[in-house]
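Dear colleagues,

I hope this message finds you well. In preparation for our joint manuscript, I am sending the DNA-directed DNA polymerase (Vibrio xiamenensis) sequence together with its predicted structure, so that both groups work from identical material. I would be grateful if you could confirm receipt.
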Amino acid sequence: MHHAHSVIVLDFETTGLSPNMGDRAIEIGAVKLVDGQVVETFQQLMNPGFRVSGFIEGYTGITNAMLSRAPSCAEVMSEFAEFIAGSPLVAHNASFDKRFLDAELARIDATYTESFACSMLIARRLIQDSPSHKLGDLVRFKRIENDGTFHRALADSQMTARLWMLMIDELNQQGIQTPSFALMQKIAKTSKHAVKALLTQNVTK
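The corresponding structure tokens are as follows:
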């Protein structure tokens, strides 16, 4: 059984919203947490083999000049597949990052075995009073330490990791010691008004 505080938190920057429409990853950032401590990070730009739009350059600060010097997606993703082997995965709005992870790994015939949890869905249940559940808004609402960089993969995964640990700490305060990764996934799927009952059932005796 996996504990929720030993996970890999990841974030992709991409050329657009949909790998089905030919969009590619251009940066991956990830933070490896073991017992709630950052033990390793991964950050790499990757060249998708075509120029990215001015919008994406402006949004991420990742320029075509930077990408032209970066290794290929295939090279970076084969390294990343090794980095994530055996760890449960977390991302903010995980359905987006999972689509790109699956698509990029499929291109190099690589897979991963562990499951994903979405910190955004969990925050919607556990931090119901936040004005929105976008990463930046949660960071401000909970005053999570950050360096002011948004939409770069490592900075976003570091902030997501801090948000993830903050939610685990709040569960600890409610009497749920060392929540399992499976419980976090269950919280994500539970309706807002049923969360309290779920948490009460999981208080560590």
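For the figure legend, we might mention the following. The longest helix spans residues 153-173. Residues 52 and 59 are 11 Å apart (CA to CA).

With kind regards,
E.M.
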